[in-house]
Protein 1
Amino acid sequence: MTSVKVPVNGREGDSSPEEGMDPAVDPGLESAAKGRAKEGMAGLAKGLAIIEAFGASTTRMTVADAARFADLSRPAARRCLLTLVELGYLAHDGKFFMPLPRMLRLGSAYLSTSSLPQIAQPLLVDARDELQESISLAVLDDGYAVFVARAEAVRIVSTGVKLGGRLPAYCSATGRVLLSDLTDDEIRRHLAGVPMKRLTARTLADADAVVAAIGRARADGYSLSNEELEVGMCAMAVPVRGRGGMIEAAVSVSVLSGRVSIETLEQSFLPVLRRVAQRIERAL
């Protein structure tokens, strides 16, 4: 399962009349500054917005793409991209900008300082070896389930997201578990700001249906996603609670529906996931 993003169909070159504007006159920077504290750095925020726009379905982008993703003017987007090229985070072939390995340093800063992925990793490996399927750990970030630890099963056809991948919370088993600590009213307010889309014929993209699915996850202590993100792929997730009892993360497994049935997930896989979650909780 790859990270789900809205693909960019239109591709444009770097040159445009807007790019000839005086760099000092940038409406995008001005508007961003109005909503930011005096101590904030609007330029840094814009560069980070562009970095976050890269993903499995957006492996390269033009100036126009970056401006659209990060809600910037083209001159501001171009300056950010060229700065990232100069610093070694991006490559530029004259039209497209693409991430370089140095980009990994940004994610590794969290992974190397957060105890949660370090605690979970060996336990995920144990569960992977027992189930012979990939096991992941994710946290909630801005409406997405972000995967911070993963034990990958070796298969010809792999399933699930990669480390650092993001899935929309409303239609993923992992996301629904992570949202299940919220009240129904809080969930509805969250969904009001989320562009819910039907990714397959089975995707729940209606607020009432999503709230009900999250309610079931809250009551059952686990969530299932049956071909909602991708045809032929099912996933199950359980919560990991911190010392205060609040959900901090979710442990999940993703499988091919032709290989593992929903019945097997609930009867054989669920006890293993719950055991891993409990072991992580005890170690926190």
Protein 2
Amino acid sequence: MDFRDLPDGRLRVTAQQRDHAAAILREAVVDGRLTVEELNARLPTALNAFTREDLYRILDDLVPAAELPAVVAEQVALGDGPGMSWENPLLIRSSWAGHKLEGAWELPPFLEVLGTGWGTVKLDCTHARPLAKVIDVVITGNPSVTIVVPDGWGVDVQQLNISGASGSINSMVPTRPIGPNPRIILRGSTTMTVKVRNPSKWDRRAITAG
């Protein structure tokens, strides 16, 4: 496509337009139009775009040509506060005592797990309300991480780097979700163990008892 034929290609874009383009890319991963590798290649352009033409180039095979200018021009508010943008993730800090999120909680599209004392972080999403179909979780520092997701969710661990002799990844959850269920993408690195699983009978009993 000759992007010079599209209107207002040199107009500067806003933060909302960048986030909207990133959301379109993430939705395309869920429905299988993009691979995770393609998402990783295009996201930096979306989040650092200067002009509409920058966004045209990464969306032209996902949005019909006739709709592309209107889609790029949209000012779609994706929400504010921690976890609602790439630049401002929900930060979960783990000390020696660890950190646990469970029960009914809102799972935003962007989280960062920061381990500062080798403690264990448990993200139990069994009763969480996901706010997006693709959830980015970046792990930094040295936390052990356990992620519990409902049946039918997908968790992609291919972007996660484990270093050190004591580190490992143990996932019992498929990479791709079933139907419209969410998909979690794990990124970053740790020297400790990362476990991904569905709720156990003990988890379900504990939740019922609580």
Protein 3
Amino acid sequence: MNAPSDFTPAGPAVKSAEERLSRYDWDAFAEDLDRFGCATLKGVLTPQECRDLAALYPEEAHFRSHIHMARHGFGKGEYRYFKYPLPDLLGGLRTALWPRLAVVANNWNARMGIDERYPDAHADFLRQCHEAGQTRPTPLLLQYVEGDFNCLHQDLYGDLAFPLQVAFLLSEPGRDFTGGEFVLTEQRPRMQSRAEVVPLMQGDAVAFAVHNRPVQGTRGTYRVNLRHGVSRLRSGKRHTVGIIFHDAK
């Protein structure tokens, strides 16, 4: 088994990602996550970076597995899980996003009465994953063509699951594809489910709750259950890259 240090991104990749992320208002970002269960970061990736990442899809050398959604009842479309080491851009962003998201995740767990707290460094969390037998990388590249969709789901790959993940839209809406909106649903106790449709442009990122999030009610804080998916693609081709922070069994 590899140690987390064997696939931690190089310093320059992390520094570049940290500089890229420093321009965002993270207090407003955390507030949106608290209010809606999701928050967007505009223009994280350049159009060229988006095209370069999407162009990796047919290159087998970058990936550990290839999933056809229809075979598993996940929807219609396909995706590939990256293998370690991740591309520098993705590895750097995964490492640099972690401490900002961990603050939110620790706050959520405290409010929901969950004892688990997440460490300051992502490598330390990966070490916990690997000690629990979760050793397979989970960042993935998704591809949809006309008629494809992704059923509402949760990306839980083992007992350890970080409560937030991030997806980046690599294709340009209106030019590369139509339809294919990112959808988040929230199941509230004794109430009907709430849907959130998140408009994204090429290079934008959306962070969202993987499983549960806290909501303040009249009688205190309670948990709501969330699922995410992608609506039917009306035309063209759509690529997305997803960063999941826990590894899989």
Protein 4
Amino acid sequence: MSLLDYKDAFLVGLFMSFMIGPVFFMLLKTSVLKGFRAALAFDVGVILGDIVFISIAYYGSRNLLEKIKDDPRLFFIGGLVLIVYGLITYLDKNNKKELDQSEVEVAKGNNYFKLFLNGFFLNFINIGVLAGWLGIMVVVGPSLNMNPTSIFWYFTLVIIGYFATDIIKILLAKQLRNKLTPLVIYRIKRGMGVLLIAFGALMMLKGFVPKEKIDELINKVEIKR
């Protein structure tokens, strides 16, 4: 893997960490009400749920991706998945719910194992998270030639980026909690939806345009700079 691959993996983790949803709110709420250790236990459960989803995405799509990894239509499929996920994110009307109105309550008392289970199951029941990891796997897997070692380290770095960002969120929970008004939440999530749609569209375009043409265009842009 190149250094660029490492950077991209870390940024993917950062992006996934800021997807606004029940887990995002519960992590902040747990930190504010129960402290750092409780929020950390909750987040470790969330991370385990993500690891399970990544494994499902990998083993569930491996045979298909092995067969079509050199087929340009793969970019069309991956782009379509990201566009659909982006549209769901953009059109979700639950974005305006305030943090204090979160649908899932944190258990009373600092039962760390229970908080861990809460994090795992709250993340695991969200099928949208699986769709997101599947879209990333469809895009990333073939670019790494479906090499198990490369894929393992790529997603390890994704998880590290995800977890590191969550730690920052936990430490800044009170400040974030005060600034996350319904309007701000709504705008952030719609912005993320637009980014996913744009990235998906670029992936689909890559499936139709020959790689040589894309490289030629990139070279022209760099020369002009």
